[in-house]
Amino acid sequence: MSATQPASTTELKEYCLRKLGKPVIDVNLADEQMDDLIEESVHVFQEYHFDGTEVYYAKEQVAASTLTFASASTGTFAVNETITGGTSGVTATVQTVTSTTVLKFNEHKNSDGLREANTSVTFTAGETVTGTNSTATGVVASSGGVVLGNVDLKALTVDDSIIGIRDVLPIKAEKLASDDMFSVEYQFHLNELPYLLKGGGTLSNYVSSRQYISMLDDIFSKSDTRQLRFNRLTDKVYIDMDWDSSVDIGDWLVLQCYKKIDGGTYTELYNDIFLKKYTTALFKKQWGQNLLKYDGMQLPGGVTLNGRQIYDDGNTEIEKLDEEMQVRYQLPDNFYVG
Hints:
Blueprint: H1 9-19, H2 31-48, E1 53-61, E2 65-68, E3 82-85, E4 91-97, E5 102-109, E6 128-131, E7 137-139, E8 146-147, H3 150-153, E9 155-157, E10 162-168, H4 184-197, H5 203-220, E11 227-231, E12 236-240, H6 243-246, E13 252-260, H7 273-291, H8 307-329, E14 336-337
Antiparallel strand pairs: 1-13, 2-5, 2-8, 3-4, 3-6, 4-5, 6-7, 9-12, 10-13, 10-14, 11-12
Helix pairs in contact: 1-7, 2-7, 4-5, 7-8
């Protein structure tokens, strides 16, 4: 792009320096400081500006948990049999036998027979695991012996670029809103739509009825009823539902989420008018802070350094831009924010 339309961090840096007076004025900033400030500015833009994110559909295939033995098992474990840890008392159901040293399992339960999503409550390293039906045995490896999958963790994994979750798409059509001819919605359409198309009804009544059905759907839906819990520090989206009956190993789950715009891919990010103003204000504040050490010092020719004024001007501009962000550019929160 042109000098006034930066398309990279380097071009944005030069643009902001020119706004502050370069090359007429020597702007006292180190490259490392400017790189940090640009990263901070982009971070603010991605967090709060409506153009800083995009709606994204993240998919993940439901995976079973993995149990790895230190050496080949004695005997062959059978699919669907229960395995038990000799020391921990943890049990699980064999899903597939990958090899003599690796098997996949689900329905992970603690020693009390309760479904457990805590990664610390699982098969322990060095203990002997025994199959109930096959009587096969294996010793859990000391490193990486147990890796819990989605069903046992009750969660999906997302990367750092995801900042908010809106919803998980419908998992199975077992609710009131289905294409089953005996469902409430099917019967509603069968009886009400011809009446509406003939002009005998009103759209407002139809809309309010659909909203009522949606509310009933949320309250009375079956095993795939779900609530989301998301914290960006864990990079996991926990879905509170009956995982055992709602999904099968190999199913795909899709999250509707908000993803940060990557400046490396979408270089127009660096030309956003707000981002340019905000980065320039950060540069000015840091420039003033660097000069505070010499505040009031008189240079040859009678010129006096005034780092305090530059610092205050930059700080004031940042405060105004923060307020402008909240008023003009920030969307209301209507999703799960980590």
